[in-house]
Write a structure and sequence with these properties.
two-stranded antiparallel ribbon, 9 helices
């Protein structure tokens, strides 16, 4: 990586432009999808397993309706919530596909997210868990590399949770039921797909909360700068450590 004449030696390029664009597009899309999804959920705040689900069927989960603060458009309007949800879902799905394809081309996945053999050792995983529990964050050049827990969580979100949201959402669409009827069978019915969609959405919320917490602990200004401009200041090594 090249540095200009006035670039401090501890400032390095961290995130590619494609990663930064997808990160912020994804963040905006997920906010709109989650809040509009809650607006849709308010029309029938009960979840079922199987093909059918109605007021007289037994729900596995019943919740109170979410307030306007949590929903898009901010008031109970099922039609408008659906318009928001379906419009943003198209942007979200194609942005995810573009990011996946480009990450294969520029080898972002192979370089930064692929799990190495040594990282899968129980001792290595245990040490990473202990470091996180003690809030012992990496310093120096080691801060540029994702640890095994970060890799596993990013892989799980990008390649499992996000596609799961897309396909369960398609399963709930009557039009897609006619085009791809195998989706209904794959998820065990439209109501099962709705339940999985709901669970996956809240798992993404959990990931978001942990992600924001780690950003705050690692230094929010430095982390935000790296995701906006690409430039990242390496944290100074602790006493007795070289940070490698």
């Amino acid at each position: 990586m090249s540095e200009g004449p006035s670039t401090p030696p501890d400032m390095v390029r961290r995130h590619r432009l494609s990663t930064r664009l997808w990160h912020w597009t994804n963040a905006l899309c997920l906010y709109a999808l989650f809040t509009s999804g809650l607006g849709i959920f308010n029309a029938h705040p009960r979840l079922y397993w199987g093909q059918y689900g109605a007021n007289f069927d037994t729900a596995w989960l019943t919740l109170p309706r979410f307030g306007s603060l949590w929903t898009l458009p901010g008031s109970y309007d099922l039609a408008l919530s659906r318009r928001w949800h379906l419009s943003v879902a198209l942007i979200f799905a194609f942005a995810l596909l573009a990011f996946m394809l480009w990450s294969l081309v520029n080898r972002h996945i192979a370089r930064n997210l692929a799990l190495r053999r040594g990282e899968m050792a129980l001792r290595h995983i245990g040490r990473s868990i202990r470091d996180h529990a003690r809030l012992r964050l990496p310093t120096g050049p080691a801060a540029l590399r994702y640890n095994v827990l970060q890799k596993a969580s990013y892989i799980g979100v990008i390649f499992i949770l996000l596609p799961l949201m897309i396909f369960t959402g398609l399963t709930m669409s009557p039009g897609m039921d006619a085009a791809w009827p195998w989706l209904v069978d794959l998820f065990g019915g439209r109501q099962s797909a709705r339940s999985i969609h709901f669970i996956a959405a809240w798992l993404l919320v959990g990931f978001f909360v942990v992600h924001i917490l780690m950003v705050v602990l690692a230094g929010p200004i430095n982390e935000l700068r790296s995701m906006v401009t690409g430039w990242y200041r390496l944290p100074a090594p602790r006493d007795g450590e070289d940070g490698a």
